[in-house]
Amino acid sequence: MAGGGGTPPGKLKEESQAGHVLPTSLEANALKKSSWGVLITGVVGGTLVAVYAVATPFITPALRKVCLPFVPATTKQVENVVKMLQRRKGPLVDIGSGDGRIVIAAAKEGFTAVGYELNPWLVWYSRYRAWREGVQDLAKFYISDLWKVTFSQYSNVVIFGVPQMMPQLEKKLELELEGDARVIACRFPFPHWTPDQVAGEGIDTVWAYDVSTFRRLENRP
Q1: 130 Rama class: left (phi>0) / alpha (psi -120 to 50) / beta
Q2: d(CA 135, CA 113)
Q3: Is the pTM of this model over 0.85?
Q4: Residue 48 class from Cβ within 10 Å (0-12 exposed, 13-18 middle, 19+ buried)?
Q5: N- or C-end of the chain: fewer Cβ atoms within 10 A?
Q6: What are the DSSP calls for 93-114, one per residue?
Q7: Are 75 and 55 in contact, with CB atoms under 8 Å apart?
């Protein structure tokens, strides 16, 4: 047996142990890759969710048939709106209230004022501004599509519209508003109504329409 070609027992033991080390190393590397994969997937997924959450309120309105973009009112525009509200009473609504500056200004004048805005980030910011200005009890903001809101309970309506939406909004308000209501349009006038008052010039122009006036004109033979 001394002249045989067999492997010594000690050598067999070493090879056996070495054979078990390699798979363990591969498993460790695979586990590390898997952990990194889960981490990267989580980071990318979280980023996409965050981008979606932030961008959706701004993109969604643009995909609608009639888009009402957010363009902050100038200080002069706000002043002109307040001027058109002199000696007025009753609740006020701002259609597409943006960052809430019209609603807050009206609340400071003693009006119970409500703003409807489709962008939730602007609604939350408006609520914060109202709280900071101390008029949170008079100024309220809601996330809503203006076409799904009924405006019959409001005596004063403010709208910063765009030309393509004004004819459709004109018809909606004609049907819903009471006879003592006033509509104040900023930047763009309504196409068929005759304003009772006009203030400002250029982009700061505002037009005030009394419902009683345009209904009387409509019913005139």
Answers
A1: alpha
A2: 10
A3: no
A4: exposed
A5: C
A6: EEET-TTSHHHHHHHHTT--EE
A7: no
